[in-house]
Amino acid sequence: MTARRKAAAVAVLGFGPLALTALAAPPAAAHGSLTDPVSRVSACYAEGPESPKSAACKAVVAAGGTQPLYDWNEVNIADAAGKHEQLIPNGKLCSAGRDKYKGLDLPRADWPASKLTAGQHTFRYKATAPHKGSFELYVTKNGYDPSKPLKWSDLEDEPFAKVTDPKLVNGEYVFDGTVPGRSGRHLIYSIWQRSDSPEAFYTCSDVVFGKDSGGSAPAPTASAPSQEQIADGAGKSTVDHGGHGGDDHTAPGGSAPGVPRTKATGDAARSADADAPRTNGSGEELATTGGDASTPYVAVGGAAVLALGAVVTFAAVRRKTTR
After folding, report:
1. pTM for the whole structure
2. How far apart are CA 216 and CA 173, in angstroms?
3. Domains in the chain: boundaries
4. Rounded to whole angstroms, how far apart are CA atoms 130 and 32?
5. Which of 10, 82, 216, 222 is the most buried (most CB within 10 A)?
6. Which CATH superfamily is domain 31-236 in?
7. How is residue 11 annotated by DSSP?
8. Is the pLDDT assigned to residue 281 strictly greater than 60?
Protein backbone atom coordinates (compact mmCIF):
# COMPACT_ATOMS: atom_id res chain seq x y z
CA MET A 1 0.00 0.00 0.00
CA THR A 2 1.39 3.44 -0.97
CA ALA A 3 1.83 6.26 1.53
CA ARG A 4 -1.13 8.13 0.03
CA ARG A 5 -3.40 5.12 0.31
CA LYS A 6 -2.32 4.57 3.92
CA ALA A 7 -3.05 8.19 4.77
CA ALA A 8 -6.48 8.03 3.16
CA ALA A 9 -7.31 4.81 4.98
CA VAL A 10 -6.28 6.33 8.31
CA ALA A 11 -8.47 9.34 7.59
CA VAL A 12 -11.48 7.16 6.88
CA LEU A 13 -10.94 5.01 9.96
CA GLY A 14 -10.38 8.06 12.13
CA PHE A 15 -13.29 10.23 10.99
CA GLY A 16 -15.81 7.41 10.56
CA PRO A 17 -16.13 6.64 14.29
CA LEU A 18 -16.19 10.38 14.99
CA ALA A 19 -19.19 10.80 12.72
CA LEU A 20 -20.93 7.80 14.28
CA THR A 21 -20.26 9.13 17.78
CA ALA A 22 -21.71 12.50 16.87
CA LEU A 23 -24.76 10.89 15.33
CA ALA A 24 -25.31 8.90 18.51
CA ALA A 25 -25.15 12.01 20.73
CA PRO A 26 -28.70 13.10 21.63
CA PRO A 27 -29.80 16.71 22.16
CA ALA A 28 -28.97 18.14 25.58
CA ALA A 29 -31.80 18.16 28.10
CA ALA A 30 -32.45 18.54 31.77
CA HIS A 31 -35.14 16.82 33.80
CA GLY A 32 -36.12 16.69 37.43
CA SER A 33 -38.45 17.77 40.22
CA LEU A 34 -38.31 19.23 43.72
CA THR A 35 -38.15 16.50 46.36
CA ASP A 36 -37.67 18.57 49.54
CA PRO A 37 -40.32 19.80 49.96
CA VAL A 38 -41.88 17.09 47.82
CA SER A 39 -43.61 18.24 44.63
CA ARG A 40 -47.12 17.08 43.80
CA VAL A 41 -46.05 15.00 40.84
CA SER A 42 -43.20 13.39 42.81
CA ALA A 43 -45.51 12.53 45.70
CA CYS A 44 -48.10 10.93 43.42
CA TYR A 45 -45.46 8.99 41.50
CA ALA A 46 -44.07 7.70 44.80
CA GLU A 47 -47.55 6.48 45.77
CA GLY A 48 -47.64 4.43 42.56
CA PRO A 49 -49.20 5.48 39.23
CA GLU A 50 -51.31 2.33 38.96
CA SER A 51 -52.71 2.43 42.48
CA PRO A 52 -52.22 5.79 44.22
CA LYS A 53 -53.28 5.93 47.85
CA SER A 54 -54.35 9.52 48.44
CA ALA A 55 -57.58 11.01 47.09
CA ALA A 56 -55.65 13.83 45.40
CA CYS A 57 -53.33 11.50 43.51
CA LYS A 58 -56.26 9.32 42.47
CA ALA A 59 -57.81 12.48 41.05
CA VAL A 60 -54.63 13.17 39.05
CA VAL A 61 -54.88 9.74 37.41
CA ALA A 62 -58.61 10.21 36.78
CA ALA A 63 -57.89 13.53 35.07
CA GLY A 64 -55.02 12.47 32.82
CA GLY A 65 -54.19 8.80 33.26
CA THR A 66 -51.00 7.28 34.67
CA GLN A 67 -48.54 8.59 32.06
CA PRO A 68 -48.10 12.03 33.68
CA LEU A 69 -46.89 10.28 36.83
CA TYR A 70 -44.46 8.02 34.98
CA ASP A 71 -43.19 11.23 33.36
CA TRP A 72 -42.88 12.94 36.74
CA ASN A 73 -39.60 14.67 35.82
CA GLU A 74 -40.87 16.43 32.69
CA VAL A 75 -43.19 19.25 33.81
CA ASN A 76 -41.51 21.75 31.53
CA ILE A 77 -41.66 24.22 28.67
CA ALA A 78 -38.93 23.60 26.10
CA ASP A 79 -38.65 27.21 24.92
CA ALA A 80 -39.62 29.14 28.07
CA ALA A 81 -36.51 31.35 28.04
CA GLY A 82 -37.55 33.10 31.25
CA LYS A 83 -41.06 34.07 30.04
CA HIS A 84 -42.81 32.08 32.75
CA GLU A 85 -45.70 34.41 33.53
CA GLN A 86 -46.21 35.27 29.89
CA LEU A 87 -46.52 31.62 28.86
CA ILE A 88 -48.30 29.94 31.78
CA PRO A 89 -51.93 30.98 32.37
CA ASN A 90 -53.42 31.48 35.80
CA GLY A 91 -54.86 28.27 37.19
CA LYS A 92 -52.27 26.20 35.30
CA LEU A 93 -49.05 26.95 37.16
CA CYS A 94 -48.53 23.43 38.46
CA SER A 95 -48.90 21.87 35.00
CA ALA A 96 -46.84 24.62 33.31
CA GLY A 97 -49.85 25.09 31.08
CA ARG A 98 -49.50 21.58 29.62
CA ASP A 99 -52.72 19.62 29.20
CA LYS A 100 -50.85 16.39 29.90
CA TYR A 101 -50.31 17.45 33.54
CA LYS A 102 -53.67 19.17 34.08
CA GLY A 103 -54.40 16.94 37.06
CA LEU A 104 -51.68 18.75 39.03
CA ASP A 105 -53.70 21.98 38.81
CA LEU A 106 -56.75 20.59 40.64
CA PRO A 107 -57.67 23.02 43.43
CA ARG A 108 -58.03 20.99 46.60
CA ALA A 109 -56.87 21.13 50.21
CA ASP A 110 -55.90 17.49 50.62
CA TRP A 111 -52.76 17.21 48.50
CA PRO A 112 -50.00 15.17 50.18
CA ALA A 113 -47.89 17.77 51.96
CA SER A 114 -44.48 18.28 53.55
CA LYS A 115 -43.96 19.83 56.97
CA LEU A 116 -42.09 23.14 56.77
CA THR A 117 -41.01 25.77 59.28
CA ALA A 118 -39.91 29.34 58.90
CA GLY A 119 -36.19 30.03 58.80
CA GLN A 120 -33.24 28.31 57.19
CA HIS A 121 -34.03 25.22 55.14
CA THR A 122 -32.02 22.93 52.85
CA PHE A 123 -33.87 22.29 49.60
CA ARG A 124 -33.30 19.30 47.34
CA TYR A 125 -34.12 18.97 43.68
CA LYS A 126 -33.81 15.56 42.03
CA ALA A 127 -32.01 16.00 38.70
CA THR A 128 -32.27 13.00 36.39
CA ALA A 129 -30.36 15.06 33.79
CA PRO A 130 -28.45 17.95 35.40
CA HIS A 131 -27.45 21.15 33.63
CA LYS A 132 -26.42 24.71 34.35
CA GLY A 133 -29.19 27.02 35.40
CA SER A 134 -30.89 28.97 38.15
CA PHE A 135 -33.53 28.01 40.70
CA GLU A 136 -36.16 30.36 42.08
CA LEU A 137 -38.55 29.41 44.89
CA TYR A 138 -41.73 31.35 45.68
CA VAL A 139 -44.15 30.91 48.57
CA THR A 140 -47.85 31.71 48.55
CA LYS A 141 -49.02 34.85 50.28
CA ASN A 142 -50.88 34.97 53.57
CA GLY A 143 -54.53 34.22 52.87
CA TYR A 144 -53.76 31.60 50.22
CA ASP A 145 -56.77 29.36 49.59
CA PRO A 146 -55.79 25.89 48.29
CA SER A 147 -59.39 25.18 47.28
CA LYS A 148 -59.11 27.78 44.50
CA PRO A 149 -57.03 27.59 41.28
CA LEU A 150 -53.48 28.85 41.82
CA LYS A 151 -52.80 32.27 40.26
CA TRP A 152 -49.53 34.13 39.79
CA SER A 153 -50.86 36.80 42.13
CA ASP A 154 -51.15 34.15 44.89
CA LEU A 155 -47.34 33.99 44.99
CA GLU A 156 -45.07 36.54 46.57
CA ASP A 157 -43.61 38.92 43.99
CA GLU A 158 -40.02 38.01 44.82
CA PRO A 159 -38.47 34.56 45.34
CA PHE A 160 -37.43 33.82 48.90
CA ALA A 161 -34.65 31.58 47.58
CA LYS A 162 -32.64 32.04 44.40
CA VAL A 163 -29.45 30.26 43.40
CA THR A 164 -27.43 29.70 40.24
CA ASP A 165 -25.69 26.38 39.59
CA PRO A 166 -26.02 24.87 43.09
CA LYS A 167 -24.06 21.83 44.23
CA LEU A 168 -25.02 18.48 42.77
CA VAL A 169 -24.87 15.79 45.46
CA ASN A 170 -25.85 12.19 44.68
CA GLY A 171 -28.00 13.25 41.77
CA GLU A 172 -29.73 16.08 43.66
CA TYR A 173 -29.22 19.81 43.58
CA VAL A 174 -28.79 20.99 47.15
CA PHE A 175 -29.15 24.63 48.21
CA ASP A 176 -30.27 26.66 51.22
CA GLY A 177 -32.95 29.31 51.57
CA THR A 178 -34.67 31.26 54.32
CA VAL A 179 -38.37 30.40 54.44
CA PRO A 180 -40.74 33.25 55.41
CA GLY A 181 -43.09 32.82 58.34
CA ARG A 182 -46.46 31.29 57.53
CA SER A 183 -49.17 29.24 59.23
CA GLY A 184 -51.32 26.43 57.95
CA ARG A 185 -51.33 25.09 54.39
CA HIS A 186 -49.30 26.86 51.70
CA LEU A 187 -47.49 26.10 48.48
CA ILE A 188 -43.88 26.41 47.30
CA TYR A 189 -43.53 27.09 43.58
CA SER A 190 -40.17 26.40 41.96
CA ILE A 191 -38.82 27.50 38.59
CA TRP A 192 -35.66 25.88 37.22
CA GLN A 193 -34.50 27.88 34.21
CA ARG A 194 -31.60 26.40 32.29
CA SER A 195 -28.87 28.80 31.18
CA ASP A 196 -27.56 26.51 28.43
CA SER A 197 -31.01 26.18 26.85
CA PRO A 198 -34.37 28.03 26.89
CA GLU A 199 -35.96 25.01 28.64
CA ALA A 200 -37.47 25.51 32.10
CA PHE A 201 -39.02 23.19 34.69
CA TYR A 202 -41.78 23.92 37.21
CA THR A 203 -43.03 22.31 40.42
CA CYS A 204 -45.74 22.81 43.03
CA SER A 205 -44.95 21.55 46.52
CA ASP A 206 -47.73 21.57 49.11
CA VAL A 207 -46.43 22.43 52.59
CA VAL A 208 -47.89 22.81 56.06
CA PHE A 209 -46.64 25.28 58.68
CA GLY A 210 -47.71 24.06 62.09
CA LYS A 211 -51.24 22.66 61.97
CA ASP A 212 -52.93 21.85 58.67
CA SER A 213 -55.94 24.11 58.38
CA GLY A 214 -56.73 23.25 54.77
CA GLY A 215 -59.37 20.59 55.37
CA SER A 216 -61.41 18.70 57.90
CA ALA A 217 -58.91 15.83 58.01
CA PRO A 218 -55.10 16.03 57.90
CA ALA A 219 -53.67 15.41 54.43
CA PRO A 220 -51.23 12.52 54.00
CA THR A 221 -47.54 13.22 54.34
CA ALA A 222 -45.78 13.53 50.99
CA SER A 223 -42.86 11.22 50.20
CA ALA A 224 -40.32 11.51 47.41
CA PRO A 225 -39.78 8.54 45.08
CA SER A 226 -36.86 6.27 45.94
CA GLN A 227 -34.13 5.36 43.48
CA GLU A 228 -35.68 1.92 43.22
CA GLN A 229 -39.09 3.39 42.33
CA ILE A 230 -37.51 5.67 39.75
CA ALA A 231 -35.67 2.74 38.17
CA ASP A 232 -38.75 0.52 38.22
CA GLY A 233 -40.89 3.09 36.39
CA ALA A 234 -38.27 4.19 33.86
CA GLY A 235 -39.44 1.62 31.31
CA LYS A 236 -42.91 3.18 31.22
CA SER A 237 -41.68 6.75 30.95
CA THR A 238 -41.89 8.55 27.60
CA VAL A 239 -39.14 10.94 28.70
CA ASP A 240 -35.72 10.54 27.13
CA HIS A 241 -33.28 11.79 29.76
CA GLY A 242 -30.78 12.60 27.04
CA GLY A 243 -33.27 14.46 24.88
CA HIS A 244 -36.97 15.16 24.88
CA GLY A 245 -40.00 12.94 25.07
CA GLY A 246 -43.66 12.85 25.88
CA ASP A 247 -46.17 15.11 24.18
CA ASP A 248 -45.62 18.53 22.63
CA HIS A 249 -44.15 20.78 25.30
CA THR A 250 -43.18 23.81 23.24
CA ALA A 251 -44.77 27.03 24.35
CA PRO A 252 -47.16 28.89 22.05
CA GLY A 253 -45.36 31.32 19.81
CA GLY A 254 -42.19 29.29 19.42
CA SER A 255 -38.80 29.82 20.99
CA ALA A 256 -37.59 33.29 21.86
CA PRO A 257 -35.40 34.74 24.60
CA GLY A 258 -37.19 36.31 27.53
CA VAL A 259 -36.88 37.76 31.01
CA PRO A 260 -37.03 35.88 34.33
CA ARG A 261 -39.98 36.28 36.66
CA THR A 262 -39.05 38.79 39.33
CA LYS A 263 -42.42 40.42 39.96
CA ALA A 264 -46.02 39.44 39.36
CA THR A 265 -47.53 41.33 36.43
CA GLY A 266 -51.20 40.74 37.19
CA ASP A 267 -53.79 38.19 36.20
CA ALA A 268 -54.26 39.26 32.58
CA ALA A 269 -52.98 37.09 29.73
CA ARG A 270 -49.21 37.41 29.36
CA SER A 271 -47.69 38.31 25.99
CA ALA A 272 -44.90 36.14 24.59
CA ASP A 273 -42.74 38.80 22.95
CA ALA A 274 -40.47 39.91 25.82
CA ASP A 275 -36.79 39.96 24.87
CA ALA A 276 -33.73 39.88 27.12
CA PRO A 277 -30.57 37.79 27.36
CA ARG A 278 -30.30 34.77 29.62
CA THR A 279 -27.61 34.49 32.26
CA ASN A 280 -24.87 31.89 32.53
CA GLY A 281 -22.83 30.52 35.44
CA SER A 282 -20.57 27.70 36.55
CA GLY A 283 -21.44 25.20 39.27
CA GLU A 284 -19.76 22.75 41.61
CA GLU A 285 -19.97 19.08 40.64
CA LEU A 286 -22.27 20.07 37.79
CA ALA A 287 -22.60 17.84 34.73
CA THR A 288 -23.05 20.12 31.71
CA THR A 289 -22.93 19.97 27.97
CA GLY A 290 -21.62 23.49 27.42
CA GLY A 291 -24.11 24.07 24.61
CA ASP A 292 -27.75 24.18 23.71
CA ALA A 293 -29.93 21.53 22.12
CA SER A 294 -28.50 22.24 18.66
CA THR A 295 -24.91 21.46 19.64
CA PRO A 296 -24.96 17.72 18.76
CA TYR A 297 -26.39 18.45 15.33
CA VAL A 298 -23.58 20.89 14.60
CA ALA A 299 -21.14 18.17 15.58
CA VAL A 300 -22.95 15.71 13.32
CA GLY A 301 -22.68 18.05 10.37
CA GLY A 302 -18.99 18.76 10.90
CA ALA A 303 -18.08 15.12 11.41
CA ALA A 304 -20.10 14.06 8.39
CA VAL A 305 -18.33 16.58 6.14
CA LEU A 306 -14.91 15.42 7.37
CA ALA A 307 -15.78 11.76 6.92
CA LEU A 308 -17.17 12.38 3.42
CA GLY A 309 -14.01 14.23 2.43
CA ALA A 310 -11.86 11.36 3.65
CA VAL A 311 -13.90 8.85 1.67
CA VAL A 312 -13.64 10.92 -1.50
CA THR A 313 -9.87 11.28 -1.06
CA PHE A 314 -9.46 7.54 -0.52
CA ALA A 315 -11.52 6.72 -3.63
CA ALA A 316 -9.59 9.17 -5.79
CA VAL A 317 -6.21 7.79 -4.69
CA ARG A 318 -7.37 4.25 -5.27
CA ARG A 319 -8.57 4.98 -8.81
CA LYS A 320 -5.29 6.72 -9.63
CA THR A 321 -3.28 3.77 -8.31
CA THR A 322 -5.38 1.30 -10.30
CA ARG A 323 -4.73 3.18 -13.51
Report:
1. 0.71
2. 35
3. 3-24+295-322, 31-236
4. 8
5. 222
6. chitin-binding protein cbp21 (2.70.50.50)
7. H
8. no
